[in-house]
Amino acid sequence: MTGPDWFDAGLPHIWLPYTQMRTASPPIPAIATDGCRISLADGRELVDGIASWWTACHGYNHPHIRQAAIDQLARMPHVMFGGLVHEPALRLARRLADLLPGDLERVFFSDSGSVAVEVAIKMAMQYWLNRGQSGRTRLVAFRGGYHGDTLATMAVCDPEEGMHSLFAGILPQHFITDLPRDDHTTAALEQLMETEGQRVAAILVEPLVQGAGGMLFHDPATLRRLRDLADRHGVLLILDEIFTGFGRTGTMFACQQADIVPDIVTLSKALSGGTVPLAATVARAHVFAAFLSDDPMHALMHGPTFMANPLACACANASLDLFEREPRLEQVAAIEEQMRDELEACRHLPAVRDVRVMGAIGVVELDRINDMNRLKARLVDQGVWVRPFRSIVYLTPAFTVTKAELARLTGAIRTVLAEAP
Questions:
Q1: Cofactors per UniProt (predicted)?
Q2: Could you read off the pLDDT of 125-147 as tens digits, one per residue?
């Protein structure tokens, strides 16, 4: 494959993510984005069905976010957050605290979802250390879960997940079990906590949807069971809302559907509207209080270099403006209804195991995908950008996607899956 000069000259020096580069098809050079469209170097235009890994919730290049970035770039693109603070970060922290339920009020900024989860793990473990309990070094996490690709976060992902199984025996050991979806799995988790609860610092879960682990759904009752279990056994509850936060499941935060308040929540992806890397780990008042002491060793000794980057925080504030000014949750409800209707036809295709929709997440699960490269190429041929993984073909479009654009996405999936051998 040939492309622009920059493509042909630079590609031999790039290491691509999640890719066996000996066998994978070459990546496609993109040159511009606008709304829900990606323009390619060869003149084609694709309708984006996954919002660049679920980040561009308002579509690409929204003028309000773009103007906020321009203004902040002219004023102060970055300044260290050690010993200095600035208006975009403090305003964003206050707004997040106001939006989140309960007393989730202390915001620690970082620049990626994996780091946000690492900080949450560190907070949870040091919470107990600061309280004089040194034995709580394990987390309870769940099969089907995904929390990042760093060493600490891999250790709390599904151990059978393909990206992480290679590191078995190297990673820290935690308790990985089934979500308490029914009486049997609830009893098993209860037994685990009865036996090992004194070693547990926190329970960690993706609320309502386990994303990269397979777009697996569970109901709000499952979250309520986890909150109850954490309370009865005196451990912290961490919700990883990096994927689900900011409207993706139909409410601003997934935990609101269960009417629970986690002790710590992690946010990223759509936080800045898909423009600049930014993440946050937000703790309740009692968690933060455990770090207040005359002992300097009780401080949270963590500080990413680009923590609370002003440019990213300005974009995030602009993104929150749009949630206030524009009908994003109503748009998510309309997307959900349209995807339910238009993806349902896939259920009758021979290779399809399940079709499920929640908010602006639409999933077609197959028995298997025999030729991933071919499937991805055929979707591009249909004029859409959809990236299947494992046995999943899914849509997580921008909330601003038009009915016609969404119909093109669902239609492409139906067409391509109908022709699959």
A1: pyridoxal 5'-phosphate
A2: 999 999 999 999 999 999 999 99
On whether the CB atoms of residues 117 and 147 are closer than 8 A, the answer is: yes
Comparing C-alpha atoms, which of 146, 137, 226 is closest to residue 174? 137
| Cβ atoms of residues 280 and 99 within 8 Å | no
> Does residue 305 have a known ligand-binding role?
yes
> Angle at CA 106, nearest 5°, toward 104 and 107?
105
Q: Does the annotation place 178 within a ligand binding site?
A: no
Is-contact 280 271, C-beta < 8 A?
A: yes
Tell whether residue 39 is among the known ligand binding residues. Answer: no
User: Which residue is catalytic, options 60, 111, 269, 376?
Assistant: 269
pTM, entire model: 0.97
Is position 127 annotated in a ligand binding site? Answer: no
Given the residues 48, 60, 111, 146, select the one marked as catalytic. Answer: 146
Q: Which of 309, 325, 341 is the last residue of a domain?
A: 325
127 is catalytic: no
146 annotated active-site:
yes
Task: Name the catalytic one among 240, 263, 376, 394.
Answer: 240
What are the tens digits of pLDDT across the range 278-311?
999 999 999 999 999 999 999 999 999 999 999 9
Same domain, 78 and 22: no
376 part of the active site: no
The number of folded domains in the chain is 2
Residue 53 belongs to domain with CATH number: 3.90.1150.10
CATH code, 317:
3.40.640.10
Q: CB-hemisphere CA count at 13 Å for 312? A: 21
Structure-block tokens of residue 56:
């561009």
